[in-house]
Amino acid sequence: MEVILAETAGFCMGVDMALTKLDHLVGEPDGHPIYILGPIIHNPQVLKRYAEKGVVMVHDPAEVPAGAHVVIRAHGITRQVEESLRARNVLIKDATCPRVKKAQLLIERNTADGGELLLYGEADHPEVAGLVSYAQGGHFVFGSSEELAGHALTPGKRYVLAAQTTQDRVQFESIAKDLAGRGDIEVAVLETICDATKLRQTEARDLAQNVDFMVVVGGYNSGNTRRLAQVVSEQGTPCKHVETVDELPLDELARYKRIGVTAGASTPRLLIDEVLAGLESL
Ligand code: SF4
């Protein structure tokens, strides 16, 4: 059996930077407790390791005490939460991914004259909450062109179209084209989709077309990992999304000749290596 690992499998730049900042704090304790606001990475195995080292995860920013460190994860936070943390003298270590930060600032700048933000993304995703908090003239979040069609757009009004960084570029471009084709509204389209996501998806698509089976490694609660599994399934290639090597259906896999492996942007190298070793043992 041949096992082929996608070149882009594993941590993206933003996740890598956020974990490096947290590792730095954990490795050089200064007496101040360390908090994270929600999971710093969508991977239960890594989160467990940090919890064992004393990192406290809370979901409510009010639970972070004054004087504690709080590491802002790559998704970013809303500007209101950031302001409230600063007002309470919480020590902020901002590990917002530079690409998410850029998207927040682009939205802020482009909606400064009151244009309404139309954001293509998952309404309940923390990155989306952060992005829309920078919109100056109202916002609407939609997950599909059908949902956008159900939102009444006012002729003559100015709109700003943007996407959550991990959204599918092809679908976003099609939405942008449809809006531009209306002619009765003014639409500014912002470039906020991250290439890390696009590269992973393109590579997963190509790999899926050349193997008999695909394994996608990553947290079940990781949006970009789930989307990778979806992209692969759309190619018609059988696929299994696993969090760890123990979940590999080894009996089923033994009959395949070529197996492709990819992993989400929040999947640690160790877990990928364990899956590779499990497959190579076949
Ligand atoms: S996927 Fe892109 S935008 Fe999101 S954290 Fe990674 S590098 Fe940043």
Description:
The structure is a single chain. The chain has 282 residues and is of the alpha/beta class. The chain folds into three domains: 2-10 and 196-280, Cobalt-precorrin-4 Transmethylase, domain 1 (3-Layer(aba) Sandwich), CATH 3.40.1010; 13-97, Rossmann fold, CATH 3.40.50; 99-193, 3-Layer(aba) Sandwich (Cobalt-precorrin-4 Transmethylase, domain 1), CATH 3.40.1010.20. The chain has eleven helices and twelve strands. It has helices at 13-27, 44-52, 79-87, 98-110, 126-132, 145-149, 169-182, 195-208, 223-234, 250-253, 269-280, and strands spanning 2-5, 34-37, 56-58, 69-72, 91-94, 116-120, 139-142, 158-163, 186-189, 213-217, 239-242, 258-263. The strands form three sheets. A four-stranded parallel beta sheet has the order 1-12-10-11, with helices on both faces. The chain has a four-stranded parallel beta sheet with strand order 3-2-4-5, sandwiched between helices. A four-stranded parallel beta sheet has the order 7-6-8-9, with helices on both faces. The longest helix has 15 residues, at 13-27. The protein is flat, with a radius of gyration of 21 Å. The model has no long low-confidence stretch (mean pLDDT 95).
Describe what is shown at a glance:
This protein is an alpha/beta fold and 282 residues long. It contains 11 helices and 12 strands. The strands form 3 sheets. The chain has a 4-stranded parallel sheet, sandwiched between helices. It has a 4-stranded parallel sheet with strand order 3-2-4-5, sandwiched between helices.
